[in-house]
What we know:
Blueprint: E1 23-24, E2 30-31, H1 45-53, H2 68-83, H3 87-94, H4 100-103, H5 108-111, H6 115-132, H7 141-158, H8 183-202, E3 207-209, E4 216-220, E5 225-227, E6 235-239, E7 244-248, E8 270-274, E9 277-281
Antiparallel strand pairs: 1-2, 3-6, 4-5, 4-9, 6-7, 7-8
Amino acid sequence: MNEAVPALKHSDATDTYRAATFIETYTGRAFWPLDPVRSKDALSVIDIAHALANQCRYSGHVRWFYSVAQHCCLLASFAVEQRGADPLTALQILMHDAPEAYLVDIPRPVKQYMPQYRVWDHAINDVIREWMGWSGIPIPEIIDDLDSRIIVDERAQLMDPAQRNDWGHKFEPVGVEILPWTPAEAEKQFLIQYAAYSKAVYGTYQYINHEWNLPVKVFHETGTDLASSKDIIDLVEVDIKGHVGRVRVKDGEGILLRDTMGGVFPRALTEWKHGKFEIYERG
């Protein structure tokens, strides 16, 4: 077990700058990065995928936007396709940078001089692994190996081809092709892979999206039928393990409301529903 992180109080902040000790996540929850045990119930793969998809690696010093989420997807896909990784290993690879959804990505040249950051990172990772049911499972050695080697691929394809600076990095490349993905594309691909690997590991859907038109029924904790295989329009997406789903909003007459910030052709207005969701698969 990694070193425990002492809970910080609001009074521990400096006199010159005080802020809330939690961050508000994409799904509207409070997450305490320096007190992750307190934050376990706030975890959601939807938040993780969204945040990682919006973070650019290498401090943005790349030819095109390259997100942490895309980095994770490429490694997981490579492990499955080229190394024959099982779904549990692939899922752990996909989630290996999940703490950065709550701490942000720090470049290695800086991170190596930030021991406290590493303590926080490890503590959040421990909580995420417990949440995923991996507390007693060793972290696969392949993660560190591929995570170090893909840097060679990323540098060659995303930075100055002349490679004028010596990184002192002598690893062999992984051999992946890196194409430009938008944040939305990276988020979608991350969730698709999460859904596939987690279904194989746990035997039931852990995340679904209405676009997939799966033969399932989804129930909220109230017992209200939110969606079915024939009428799934209200449900946009749901994270079963994270106890959160996004639904389209209707008015009192059952008419879908539109997002007023959506431009000329506004999308449907959506909102987050928190609580327990259950999925019933239909044959």
